[in-house]
C-alpha cells in the first residue's frame, strides 16, 4: 500500500537561480516533515535547474520531485501542473523567491482538523534593504467558507496563495486560470473559500515575502487585461447566487479594488516607463460609479480612494507613492 504525504508543497520556478536555494532549504528545515516538495521549472533561461539539481544531489531527499517544462506556461500553468501530480491531503504554495519559517507546516497542519478546510497565517514583508514588517489578514479567527469568501472580496483576507494551506479536495474540478499573470491567487481563493466548510486565520507570521523590483508582481507594466482572465474564471466558477443578492456589494467592491491595484502597479512604473500612463488612464475610465456606490456601503475608504483616482489622479499617485515607499521600500 502506497503511503501518501500529508502535505504537497508546490514551488514554481522561473529564472530563480539567485533565490531558489533559500526557498528549498526553508522547506527542508520544516519541523513538520511529512510532505512532498514539487518543484516546477517553467523553462528557465538561467541556471535555475543546475541549482535545484545540486541541492537534490547534495541532500539525497526523496521527498523532492522536479517537473522540468520545455515551454514557459506562466504561474497558473505551473501550479496546475504540480497540482495534477500532488498526492497530499493538503496543499501549500511557495514562490521560489520567498521562504517558509520553520513552523509553517506544523502550524497549518495542526489547524486543519475536523471540518476546517483552509488555514491562513501572517507573514513578514521583507523590503529590498532587508528590513521586515509583520503583516496579516484583518480577519482573524474562524468562519464559515461563505463568510471567508465575502471577507476575501473586500480585502479582509489577503489575496495570496502562499500564506495559506488548503485541503486538496477543494481543487477538484477547478484550477488556476491558465495565462493569467495577476489576480489568479485572488480569484482562486474566493472560489476555494466558497467551497470550504470552515476557514481559520491566525496573525502569527510564518513565512517571508521578499519585495523585489524585478519580480513578476513588481517588475512589469501591468494592464487591465492582466485581470480579465482571472475575473472571467471567477465569474465562471462562482455560482450566480454568490455574486448577486447579499454578495453583490462585496463582489462589486472586489472589482473596484482590482482596478485600483492595477492602477497602483502602473503608478509605480510611470516615472521610468511613461507607457504605464495608459494603464492608469484605462483604469480611471473603467471605474464604474455602481462599484463606488457599492463600496461606500461596504468599504468607504475604498470608495473614497477610487473617487480620488478618478477625479484627481496626480494627488492619488503622490499619496500612493508615499505609501509604497514606507511599506515596501520602493520608489
Condensed summary:
By secondary structure, this protein is α/β, with parallel strands linked by helices. It has two domains: 7-121 and 161-188 and 205-210, Spore Coat Polysaccharide Biosynthesis Protein SpsA, Chain A (Alpha-Beta Complex); 239-328, no CATH class.
Question: How would you sum up this structure, described in words?
Answer:
This protein folds into two domains: 7-121 and 161-188 and 205-210, Spore Coat Polysaccharide Biosynthesis Protein SpsA, Chain A, CATH 3.90.550; 239-328, no CATH class. It is of the alpha/beta class and 331 residues long. Helix 1 (20-28) links the parallel strand 1 (7-13) and strand 2 (35-42). Helix 8 (248-269) packs antiparallel against helix 9 (276-286). It has twelve helices and ten strands. Strands 1, 2, 3, 4, 5, 6, 7, 8, 9 and 10 form a ten-stranded mixed β-sheet that branches.
Amino acid at each position: 500500500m502506497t503511503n501518501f504525504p500529508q502535505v504537497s508543497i508546490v514551488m514554481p520556478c522561473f529564472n530563480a537561480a539567485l533565490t531558489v536555494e533559500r526557498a528549498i532549504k526553508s522547506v527542508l528545515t520544516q519541523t513538520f516533515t511529512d510532505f512532498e516538495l514539487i518543484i516546477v521549472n517553467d523553462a528557465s533561461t538561467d541556471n535555475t535547474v543546475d541549482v535545484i539539481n545540486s541541492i537534490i544531489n547534495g541532500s539525497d531527499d526523496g521527498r523532492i520531485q522536479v517537473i522540468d517544462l520545455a515551454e514557459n506556461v506562466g504561474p497558473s500553468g505551473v501550479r496546475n501542473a504540480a497540482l495534477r501530480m500532488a498526492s497530499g491531503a493538503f496543499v501549500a504554495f511557495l514562490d521560489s523567491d520567498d521562504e517558509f519559517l520553520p513552523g509553517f507546516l506544523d502550524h497549518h497542519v495542526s489547524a486543519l482538523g475536523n471540518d476546517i478546510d483552509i488555514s491562513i497565517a501572517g507573514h513578514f514583508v521583507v523590503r529590498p534593504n532587508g528590513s521586515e514588517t509583520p503583516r496579516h489578514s484583518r480577519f482573524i479567527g474562524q468562519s464559515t467558507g461563505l463568510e471567508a469568501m465575502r471577507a476575501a472580496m473586500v480585502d479582509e483576507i489577503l489575496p495570496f496563495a502562499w500564506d495559506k494551506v488548503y485541503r486538496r479536495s477543494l481543487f477538484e474540478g477547478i484550477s488556476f486560470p491558465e495565462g493569467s499573470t495577476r489576480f489568479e491567487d485572488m480569484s482562486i481563493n474566493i472560489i476555494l473559500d466558497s467551497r470550504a466548510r470552515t476557514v481559520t486565520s491566525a496573525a502569527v507570521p510564518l513565512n517571508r515575502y521578499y519585495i523585489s523590483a524585478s519580480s513578476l508582481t513588481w517588475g512589469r507594466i501591468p494592464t487591465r487585461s492582466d485581470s480579465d482572465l482571472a475575473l472571467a474564471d471567477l465569474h465562471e466558477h462562482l455560482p450566480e447566487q454568490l455574486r448577486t443578492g447579499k454578495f453583490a456589494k462585496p463582489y462589486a467592491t472586489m472589482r473596484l479594488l482590482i482596478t485600483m491595484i492595477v492602477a497602483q502597479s502602473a503608478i509605480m512604473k510611470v516615472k521610468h516607463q511613461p507607457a504605464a500612463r495608459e494603464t492608469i488612464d484605462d483604469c480611471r475610465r473603467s471605474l464604474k460609479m455602481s462599484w463606488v456606490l457599492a463600496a461606500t456601503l461596504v468599504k468607504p475608504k475604498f470608495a473614497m480612494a477610487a473617487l480620488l483616482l478618478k477625479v484627481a489622479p496626480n494627488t492619488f499617485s503622490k499619496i500612493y507613492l508615499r505609501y509604497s515607499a514606507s511599506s515596501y521600500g520602493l520608489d
